[in-house]
Amino acid sequence: MPPTRRPRPEPTPGPTGAPDLVTQPIATRGPNHRGRAAAAVIGSGVLFGTSGTASVLLHTGASPMAIAAVRLIVGSIGLVVLAVRQRELGHLVALWRRGTTWLMGVAAAAYMGTFFLAVGAGGVAIASLVSISLGPLFSALIARALGRPWPGRVWLVATILAVGGVALLGWPADAGSSTGAAGAATAPGSDRLLGAIFATVSSASYSLYAVLGSKLTREEHHATDALAAAFAIGSVLLLPFLVMDASWLASPQGIGLALWTGLVTTTTSYALFGYGFTHLAPGIVATLVLSEPVVATLLGVGVLGEPMPMRGWIGCAAIAVGLALVARNEARGAGQEGAGRAPAP
Description:
Layout: H1 34-48, H2 51-57, H3 64-86, H4 89-96, H5 99-122, H6 124-145, H7 153-170, H8 189-218, H9 223-243, H10 252-279, H11 282-288, H12 291-302, H13 310-331
Helix pairs in contact: 1-10, 1-12, 1-13, 3-5, 3-9, 3-10, 4-9, 5-6, 5-8, 5-9, 6-7, 6-8, 6-11, 7-13, 12-13
């Protein structure tokens, strides 16, 4: 049987003595946390943005799908450990009995799988440009279909700025060439179209699991529990890809890559991400996480020595302005509908 509801406790202190805002029950969280939630989502995007550089520096020769599989497997183990340490295992078992959780897990696996298919078919630039840019729109549309309101005019202006910045940052300098703005290979003709289609499916899948996760938190499930339960399902779905290509895990680089992408860019970043969608509307979360391409670009230039044209820097600035607008709006509590607040009757 599902675990019985406990009385709503007071906020519990975290390891530093401050309230534990990531794992605190939803009912004890007030609107004052919206600014912190916006900062948490931006922080999760910063961690997401390190995964590409890590895979280059810790070159293993593994297939992209195998890296995606080990990232989700290790990351889901980390989230399950967090969830079990903070609450009873029965909470996860109850979530695994929910059809919403299974759909969220399938969406998480589809998001990672189709993204790497997009990279293989159309190249890094097209895959990243399409999947990242469509995220805020898909999230807002799916949330609206489930009865949530639009995030508001500030979100719309900020999203236009941020998506335009992503376009400047990622679109190839010469559409007829085979090299993107940062030296990333792109594919010509129909391959680029196929890559764009895969990237569109990836973006929709990402948006679906984010909106479903927001739905579960509004039903007073902890964000960490919801993500742990769903990612465990997704990791099982991707496990065959790791079984077919697991020899690279025996090397120090393979172990380092698995730990970094799993525990840092998945467990830690999604703990922050989960706190964000507990308090913020899905469309706002999807806009704030556009900090990822900025960090990925800065690391590519500063650490990997990739070239950056002037329009790329303009794109980074546009994204930063868009994120600042949304974060400032949320910190002031201007939005009336947070993801952690039930819609008005």
